[in-house]
Amino acid sequence: MNFDLTPQLPATFDLVHIVLAGIAVILFFAFVLKPSKRSLVDAEMDDTPPAGVADSEDKKIDSTAVLTVKESSTVKETAPESALQFLGLLQQEARLIDFVQEEIGAYSDEEVGAAARIVHEGSKKVINEYFTLDPIRTEDEESRVTLAEGFNAAEVRLTGNVVGSAPFTGTLIHRGWRVAAVNLPKLSAGHDTTIVAAAEVEL
Questions:
Q1: What is the span of the domain harbouring residue 183?
Q2: Are residues 136 and 184 in the same domain?
């Protein structure tokens, strides 16, 4: 079916048609020049950093967050070789393992005391030879000390009636110890540190 629109077109243009034509033109340009939602989004995106910069900043933030989580949740593992070596030295010089593993209930206090003297002397020899120890607090024990605000809780442990916040004043019960230097013997290649005391066979 065909429609003939020729009769509907005006033969002449009067004022009404001119006005309608002007309105149509205005509406046309208004529609064409109206910014679309797409262009508004693009304009907003122009105010944001480029994609590469944003991605890199996001990666920095993410990596920092991951690093913070790892630092707060990771437990530092210690190598057992030094501890085993130290235990072996205490056994060698002080017979510490033999003393601890022995059932001392059947022995008298005098006999236990005599064995403890050997353990004490040997242990002191090992510690003084391979470690340098400094007291954490320099005051005399049983003296009165004051802990200022912000004191290191790892160095000083509060006991007794702990109430309120620093500064604290109390009696120094123990000065504490800090290891200033460690000088354990070097291990030879292939040395088995798990053997802290070799079995002995007398021929």
A1: 81-144+173-191
A2: yes
Give me 62's structure tokens: 């993410």
At residue 7, the 3 state secondary structure works out as helix
Query: Which tokens is 155 given?
Result: 């160095």
Q: Which helix (H) or strand (E) holds 157?
A: none
Domains identified in the chain, total number: 2
In order along its 203 residues, the chain shows pLDDT tens digits of: 443 444 444 444 455 555 555 565 565 555 444 444 444 444 444 555 555 544 444 444 444 444 454 555 678 888 899 999 999 999 999 999 999 999 999 999 999 999 999 999 999 999 999 999 999 999 999 999 999 999 999 999 999 999 999 999 999 999 999 999 999 999 999 999 999 999 999 99
The domain boundary, picked from 39, 55, 72, lies at 72
Q: What would the 3-class secondary structure string for 68-100 be?
A: HHHHHHCCCCCCHHHHHHHHHHHHHHHCHHHHH
